[in-house]
């Protein structure tokens, strides 16, 4: 049985029984992917009400849509079985049993369903599915069909389906309106992004070529479907517009399993000038090696990934599984080979936020990749350099120099945030005012270089980003010539409940940080690499006098903290807003909106959607002492509604850091299980990938106590009583450190070439790690 190929239970996310209302959620959870391709966990034969989709990194199109979409690409998965003319699906037949399992360790999706048709014929379908982590252009599915109580003729239809549409928007209905699961997506407007270029079939091979209408990207699919166990009695090709299928008839004895292997290769004109040739050649290569070899290759690639990325919680297998699920989602979200793409807010698992890229990458996702897969972190940051021309244009539109990164971006780096809500009732000010994203990108650049020592990246990409973002902040800040202070007005901070505010503390301090570090890098390059600095300066027209100007503006943006009252005002006038108490919590013990309030009418209150000042404390841990952190955590935590999935993880980390860990486990679990428990109610739209990154940070940086302070790794852990320990692995300056945290000790092992040494700090004391030597440090 294919089930025997799966890993142990601790690595499996499972579905038992069929719940039509939850199938769209499981389609998200059971996505298989590899950073280039993401295919939602739809049933191979499909069903009415499915929200199926395959998404290809970087394939965007703006034709026939309100804003640009990550295109719902042609479906490679389609594999339907007919028993004596009766199609086996959940609407046509009765389902006797249904089970699925996602194997996180091997990147496999297993499925077994037993159908009974109206004539009483019982047929079992069992399948195994991958998007290869070895060859990211390869997808494959093996299906076994067993006629359990009959010997009726079996026809298998294997198709490539180019008739795909993106969801656009739902018409306005009264609050509380609900639709049956099998028709709810019919109510949406749909966007068309693809036209057929060609299709052909011969023997057991199919080819389909589609092209995006506006962006003109060619998508080339090649597929073969064959049985390694049976010869088909008859086979033929069927075609219609945007669809081609191979139909094969088999004669089976009762109880005899039919095995079918479908291999599909996908290339686009983003990858190659001749994607059709590439897909055909790749298919030939994989057919010759066979399905089992494809599975084995992918499994070996996954083994290497888990060696660097695995985390476990000793004594809490459910939480371990949830953390691993998040890591799996992070690994299938990032393409380490393409610097022109990034990770959308729903990665490659759904159409939520239309596949757009946010600040989530630098703030929530990048730390995971920096400290586990630094080469992937480098590629993600190169996307920001690739889109630097568009960021320059966005700054220029406001009459400013330098570069301003957009709140939402796609393939070109232009601003893609919608202006209005779907019903036109509310304006999205994020696109105009959440300018802090520019400093967040700069923070990601510096954090990556500090952790990796990758000077080459700094010289060729990072320094230019820092200089151009500093120019933007210099021009955007408004100096007061009398006081010498500078203001940044008409902004929105991370909180997002408050627009048009002045001097948001997070924005001002990150802008100041950006200016200071740009100046530091300029000085260091002037001393160490004047030749390279001269090249950059010549290309962007940078003058030495600008650097002094950056520092003057940075000084004017200084953040003053009163020792007597260290609570930082979130923005000018925040303390004058109405202090509305939070009095109600949901079944997950998370705050509800106070009566009469919702996302768009909290402007005049002190309520927060998500951490703002607390996010500042998290991102710049060296800047604030413990008393300041504690005072701000206690003040703002009581006013935060956590209406963003990234919020709980940050509160877990900072709660542990300031010694107020009472709700840390609750916040951690809220983040870790956000999709597995669907506790936001919208997992069907795609994975909350920022929460996956936040969960890793909560475990490693919160409970594991790992922080980079003053350029050195520090460990100051705290474990809840119910956990026995945690294990994780980190990369630092080209070496790996294996970490085990227990209640009484931290054990560190440096995995590096002989004689290599790394200095760290554990609970405030310096520790010298020597390659290959285990160091166990007792905790007070």
TrEMBL record:
Database matches in Gene3D superfamilies: 1.50.10.10, Glycoside hydrolase, family 65, N-terminal domain (2.70.98.40), Maltose phosphorylase, domain 3 (2.60.420.10)
Keywords assigned by UniProt, alphabetized: Glycosidase, Glycosyltransferase, Hydrolase, Transferase
Record InterPro entries: 6-hairpin_glycosidase_sf, 6hp_glycosidase-like_sf, Gal_mutarotase_sf_dom, GH65_N, Glyco_hydro_65_C, Glyco_hydro_65_M, Glyco_hydro_65_N, Malt_Pase/Glycosyl_Hdrlase
Any Pfam family hit: Glyco_hydro_65C
Source domain of life: Bacteria
Location of the Glycoside hydrolase family 65 central catalytic domain: 324-697
Protein name: Glycoside hydrolase family 65 protein
Homology family: Belongs to the glycosyl hydrolase 65 family.
Glycoside hydrolase family 65 N-terminal domain boundaries: 14-270
